[in-house]
Amino acid sequence: MELGAGSFGKVMLASLTKTTKHVALKIIKKKDNPYDQKRIKAEAQTLKITGECPFLCKGLAAFQSQLHAYLVMECESKTSLWDLIHSKEKLGMETVIFFSAELVVGLQFLHSRGIVHRDLKPDNILISKDGHIKIVDFGLVAEDVSKGMKLKAVVGNFKYRAPELFMRDPYDAGVDWWAFGIILCLMATGQLPFDDLSGMNYLAYLVTSTKPRYEKGLSRDARRLLNELLEKDPEKRLGTTGDIRSHPFFRSIKWAELESLKVPSPFKPEGFSPEDLKATYTGPLPFLEDPKSEVPPDDPMVLQEFSYVNSSW
């Protein structure tokens, strides 16, 4: 079963031998250029630490053949935040606050490790079988971003781009907080705060020059939080500065319990159906049949393998 596809390759639902567990297998065709080499290594390195935060998709292994890189990740559900919003049009405020708080924890963990996601969007946020969010797809991450360091590459879905990206200004982790604000608005209202129907150029004008627009009935705390996240000056944007956890919008959240997964989710998705599992990818993996699968020791694309992080796998 194909879980996703793009210019990078594809993600398949796969099964591990001698177990009933299922995983997501990301297959990336290697290209002979420094940018792609760096991107694959950055994604693999990020997956090594994801097991330290419950709101990131856990990496299990990384390996390669001469032609492909393979990333193995946990996979409990095929339901994304986008799927949920699309099916319900907008979410109840209890669910919005809960998922938003878990996203805050996930983003703060990444940023504390010098990682900027750069492609945060509802499609890249899965909901586990227990109803907790899992940030996925680290294919566009920037690593080793220390305080005061700025990035330049313009990447990510344009609907979630911060003003500094449209203006091609140097940027930092503030772009993730802007994207988080767009996602929060979409969860709460079913609509984006800037009209994207007229194309990227007009959206760029709206994002850089106009105020966000919200649906009537949005609470004062939600409006205030959105305005602080969708601040055009990244130096003043909440998340980049200030204490987002103490915002009145999150007054009901007990952060220690949330991080320990002791707060039950208001929503739990359906698991994989028998039909889904029948379509599970079982291999053999291409690298096992590839006669050129031996990787020269000096190959610049060698990925450092890492063991399964959970002995039950």
UniProtKB/TrEMBL annotation:
Binding-site residues for ATP, renumbered to this chain: K30
Domain AGC-kinase C-terminal: 251-313
A GO CC term assigned to this protein in UniProt: cytoplasm
Domain Protein kinase: 1-250
Superkingdom of origin: Eukaryota
Keywords: ATP-binding, Kinase, Nucleotide-binding, Phosphoprotein, Serine/threonine-protein kinase, Transferase
Recorded family membership: Belongs to the protein kinase superfamily.
Protein name, entry field: Protein kinase C theta type-like
